[in-house]
Amino acid sequence: MSRLKELRKMRGYTQIKMQMLTGIDQSDYSKIENGKRYYTFEQCKKIAIALDTSMDYLAGLTDEIKPYKRKK
Q1: Mind listing the pLDDT tens digit for each residue in 25-45?
Q2: How confident is the model over 41-65, as pLDDT tens digits?
Q3: pTM score, whole prediction
Q4: Nearest Cα residue to 44 out of 22, 14, 65
Q5: What is the spatial distance between Cα 16 and Cα 41, in angstroms, rounded to a whole number?
Q6: Residue 30 sits in a domain of what CATH number?
Q7: What is the residue-wise DSSP string for 16-60?
Q8: Residues sharing a CB contact under 8 Å with residue 9, sequence separation 6 or more, in sequence order
Q9: Is 65 domain-assigned?
Q10: How many domains does the chain have?
Q11: What is the residue range of 50's domain?
Q12: Residue 72 lies inside a defined structural domain of this protein
């Protein structure tokens, strides 16, 4: 299972919920989640905010799931 899908399920979200939270079309989100499409920087940021994690975690640069840090 992909890191993205695993975290989405851990949060109890459906792909439709992710569409509502991120503005990314559900079919596009599904392709991203299943590795059939890459996400843009902005999409990664929106997904990280929605899943309350870091972009580093989504990119596989860390195994630590920690909240997304917003700049003040």
Answers
A1: 999 999 999 999 999 999 999
A2: 999 999 999 999 999 999 999 999 8
A3: 0.87
A4: 22
A5: 21
A6: 1.10.260.40
A7: HHHHHHH---HHHHHHHHTTSSPPPHHHHHHHHHHHT--HHHHTT
A8: 1
A9: no
A10: 1
A11: 3-58
A12: no
